[in-house]
Amino acid sequence: MFRQGFVAAFALLALAACTTAPVRPAGPVTPGTTPPLVTHTAPSTPVSFNDLAGWAQEDHLGALDAFRQGCGAAKDPALVEVCRKARAERVGNDDDARRFLEANFRPEALPGQGLLTAYFAPEYEARMSRSAEFSAPMRGKPADLVTLDLAQFDPGLSGKKVAGEIEGGQVLPYRDRAAIEATPETRPLAWLRPEDLFFLQIQGSGVLVLPDGRRVRAAFAAHNGRPFVGIATPMRDRGLLADNNTSGDAIRAWLANHRGPEADAIMRLNPRYVFFQTLPDDGRQAVGAAGVPLPPGRAIAVDPGRHAMGELFWLDASAPKLAGGFPTYRRLAVALDVGGAIKGEVRADLYTGTGAAAGAEAGRVRHDLRLYRLVPRG
Prior knowledge:
Elements: H1 2-5, H2 7-18, E1 45-46, H3 60-70, H4 77-88, H5 94-104, E2 105-109, E3 114-121, E4 123-125, E5 136-138, E6 146-149, E7 161-167, E8 170-173, H6 177-181, E9 190-192, H7 194-203, E10 206-209, E11 215-223, H8 232-237, H9 248-257, H10 261-267, E12 274-280, E13 299-301, E14 312-318, E15 329-337, E16 347-354, H11 356-362, E17 367-376
Parallel strand pairs: 3-16, 4-10, 13-15
Antiparallel strand pairs: 1-2, 2-17, 3-17, 5-9, 6-7, 7-8, 10-11, 11-12, 13-16, 14-15, 14-17
Helix pairs in contact: 3-5, 9-10
């Protein structure tokens, strides 16, 4: 009775979710929720490895190691077989790794030009009690927040989930950022600087460093189901940031320098709010949607409706749009994650690693992208 009574509400929420077009890095996602196998429908063009700009200069052994780490997420039988071979063979130098890749894959160019961005797992100072500086509570998942898998009600909505709360016999959208922040938190998991919590929510996970040196992993638990709205464009449009200086570092610095009502108003332009859980820090990299640790610089988030987890891609990204960005990103990367703004055939979000240096790099990645899928040879 309960499930039947809410089907109409679920359908309405699904339509709202399908029209959302957030602009943000990948994540947050629930580790281990690997999307189903996809069928590629966009036309691709076979090319040779010699056609891949930068292929000869690639660290082929590093690329093969990353493939070995992540290919266990693959479901396609041909890719599973290449994964088995890659893990079984002893390849100890770059030349052998290159030969293995060229013998077992053929590249196909995906049509058109897209966008490469990047994300990272941050490390932030935290406190267990509130202070003037550490005034933002990191909240756990609220008891009244429900997450609904719509595929249980309509197979055509596979992969669609919505978050809400039950009120008066109805499922309603959950409160937005402003309303949540206006509600006192009686049992916070930790206290952070407001701008650090905001960026932690964007990335979806990270590590908290306490004054006594203890490290605690902040892992994604849930979000409020509201669409993600990036703040870079409105900050630029309001003259708060220069047109070519909307990097993560620039945004974070502005928020820190205007901490209080002014920064709060900007952050509340993004209604999405992320809740966390704390786990012991095992020193490993963040885990993506494929359920495996992400190899820094070699893992990408993709659109799960267009690409499958475990697939191997050649990135050819150039023409950086943000000041300080590297001129090019040309490398092999494995699809191991998904993200709310990662939509389309030629769209990828590169995981750069953990900590401040990774964050500085990730905040400067906004490059034109040409994408090549490496298909197992038949």
